[in-house]
Design the sequence.
């Protein structure tokens, strides 16, 4: 019987992380065990007990990381839920990467290890190595605010609403109003937004509109 790509990829991860093992329940494949974290000088720093669940649509869906040793507080401010599930990146990045495809090995190297190393950094420094990311719809606003370099949520919503229904071409004038062609200005920004799935874009727009109403209500209450 021919082995699947997932089986081959899991075998490669198990060779790379010998303290991990594979458990199978029906069609669900889970890697669990201990991973060691090393610093830039390849010196051992700490170890974490984790499990990683392979997704049904592998490799076009993100694996799920859980911290099982409770070495990290299971709270939102540590980007970890009560059940130990870990938020390793923004929902938008997850969406973009999933559509291109991500192997179990890449997930470990690009997300699991940096996430755990960042937790160690937070414990020693009281802050995140690359800055923090907000939760919920505030996190959605932060993502698009940084992407578009806009601080006003209404402007962010207006831009995204136009992007969602209007196709722009390389030689069109850039949406930022610079007078330059899109290809010489914000082509990469536009490509990122269009690279998101339609479902992700629609959910994000809805969440941003909910947040906008909440901000507007708060401002009116403060003015009374």
Sequence:
């Amino acid at each position: 019987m021919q082995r699947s790509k997932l089986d081959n990829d899991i075998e490669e991860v198990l060779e790379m992380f010998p303290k991990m093992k594979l458990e199978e329940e029906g069609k669900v494949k889970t890697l669990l065990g201990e991973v060691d974290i090393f610093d830039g000088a390849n010196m051992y720093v700490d170890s974490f007990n984790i499990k990683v669940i392979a997704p049904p649509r592998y490799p076009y869906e993100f694996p799920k990381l859980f911290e099982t040793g409770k070495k990290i507080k299971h709270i939102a401010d540590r980007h970890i839920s009560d059940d130990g599930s870990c938020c390793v990146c923004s929902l938008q990045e997850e969406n973009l990467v999933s559509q291109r495809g991500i192997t179990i090995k890449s997930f470990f190297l690009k997300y699991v290890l940096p996430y755990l190393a960042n937790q160690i950094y937070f414990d020693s420094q009281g802050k995140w190595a690359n800055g923090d990311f907000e939760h919920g719809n505030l996190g959605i606003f932060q993502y698009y605010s940084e992407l578009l370099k806009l601080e006003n949520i209404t402007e962010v919503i207006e831009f995204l609403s136009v992007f969602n229904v209007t196709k722009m071409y390389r030689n069109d004038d850039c949406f930022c109003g610079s007078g330059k062609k899109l290809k010489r200005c914000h082509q990469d920004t536009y490509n990122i937004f269009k690279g998101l799935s339609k479902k992700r874009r629609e959910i994000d727009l809805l969440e941003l509109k909910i947040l906008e109403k909440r901000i507007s209500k708060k401002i009116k209450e403060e003015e009374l």
The chain has two domains: 5-125, 136-223. The CA atoms of residues 24 and 82 lie 24 Å apart. The radius of gyration is 21 Å. Residues 198-223 form the longest helix (26 residues).
